[in-house]
Write a structure and sequence with these properties.
Layout lengths: L26 E3 L8 H4 L2 E4 L5 E8 L3 E6 L3 H5 L9 H9 L7 H11 L13 H6 L1 H15 L10 H6 L6 H15 L6 H40 L8 H37 L3 H12 L2 H21 L8 H12 L3 H10 L7
Antiparallel strand pairs: 1-2, 2-3, 3-4
Helix pairs in contact: 4-12, 6-9, 9-10, 9-11, 9-12, 10-11, 10-12, 10-13, 10-14, 12-14
Length: 354
């Protein structure tokens, strides 16, 4: 966030950040939850631009988004909650407030809330997203290979290629590779498959969150540049309520983004230390450390992404929307949910800012 903020007039149009449902920070397909109401099973739980978890029954370019707040579901579904509260409503009441719907946060939050899924294997990124993240994963596959083999002559495109190294047609060669890795990691050969699965999964999560931040950064810069321009505009700069709101939103956005950046820097230090003396035990420590921040990082990235998507949707470039329209949108929509963002900021451990 300390980088120089270029004028949004010099930027190309920014598109909203979108992913398939299982790859998204802010979409939970209810088909993975064992609900009894068929229409709910076909719907999605999404974070709206006010950071509320709402049920979306349909969404398209022509009809828009058909959203119902969880508190309004009894009326919409014809439920008599004075007589009996449906199980589906109880489940949705637990799901709606979750800070993020990304698969890594859901693994933790669903377990903590006692909500089950049809099949735990669905809480994984799609194959397409895995391919997208292959470039990020090289940061983590490279050091592992260097430690075990040295990297000469080894062509790794994604994490599955590491597993394939042990499927050598020559059984003797494959056993030798497994033996080298087992010795290096100080584990039994039979533990290697589980180690590789854990290694790939935890660093895939880190790659996923890094990509989310990288895609978010231009939108944050865009918004902050817009605020800089807005403060200098003669039509709105004397609107002190608007100016205070802009300052409040910017402070929260900066604090949350700085917390995420600081956490990634800490992860980098910890993983570098792990690779300097790799072992299964050291990896487990790093894994627990990264996993313990999944819901914190997911929640912050979800909130920032939803807010920046709302801005990009209405003001994708400098020529769209004048200062008055932008000021109205800030007061009517952007400030909504700021209390939730402040809660995320206060709930973020102090050492994330160090």
């Amino acid at each position: 966030m300390e980088r120089h903020l270029r004028s949004i007039a010099d930027r190309e149009e920014l598109e909203q950040i979108e992913d398939s449902d299982m790859d998204s920070l802010f979409v939970l397909p209810l088909s993975i939850i064992p609900l009894k109401t068929p229409s709910l099973g076909r719907a999605r739980l999404i974070k709206n631009q006010r950071l509320q978890g709402v049920v979306e029954f349909f969404s398209d370019l022509h009809s828009g988004s058909g959203q119902v707040e969880v508190t309004q579901l009894p009326s919409a579904m014809g439920w008599d909650i004075d007589h009996e509260i449906p199980d589906d409503l109880l489940i949705l009441r637990r799901l709606a407030p979750m800070p993020s719907y990304d698969v890594y946060s859901l693994r933790i939050l669903l377990r903590e809330s006692g909500v089950s899924v049809h099949d735990s294997t669905v809480l994984r990124l799609s194959d397409a997203k895995n391919r997208e993240l292959s470039g990020y994963m090289k940061t983590f596959t490279g050091p592992l290979l260097q430690q075990i083999y040295g990297s000469e002559g080894i062509d790794i495109k994604d994490f599955s290629d590491i597993v394939a190294l042990f499927r050598d047609p020559d059984p003797k060669a494959a056993r030798q590779k497994l033996k080298i890795m087992a010795q290096k990691l100080e584990i039994d050969v039979m533990e290697i498959p589980a180690f590789l699965e854990d290694y790939g999964d935890i660093f895939l999560s880190l790659s996923y969150y890094r990509q989310c931040l990288d895609r978010l950064q231009p939108h944050l810069d865009n918004y902050l540049s817009s605020m800089d321009i807005l403060r200098k505009n003669w039509q709105v700069k004397t609107d002190y309520t608007l100016m205070r709101t802009c300052d409040s939103i910017e402070r929260v956005l900066r604090a949350l983004s700085q917390a995420i950046i600081a956490r990634f820097e800490n992860f980098d230090r910890q993983t570098q230390e792990m690779w300097s003396s790799i072992s299964a035990q050291r990896f487990r420590q790093v894994k627990m450390m990264i996993a313990s921040y999944h819901t914190t990082i997911g929640g912050i990235l979800c909130a920032l992404t939803v807010k920046m998507n709302a801005w990009a949707k209405h003001f994708p470039k400098h020529s769209v929307g004048g200062p008055l329209r932008r000021g109205e949108f800030i007061m009517s929509e952007m400030k909504q949910g700021i209390a939730e963002m402040r809660r995320l900021e206060k709930a973020t451990p102090d050492h994330l800012f160090q």
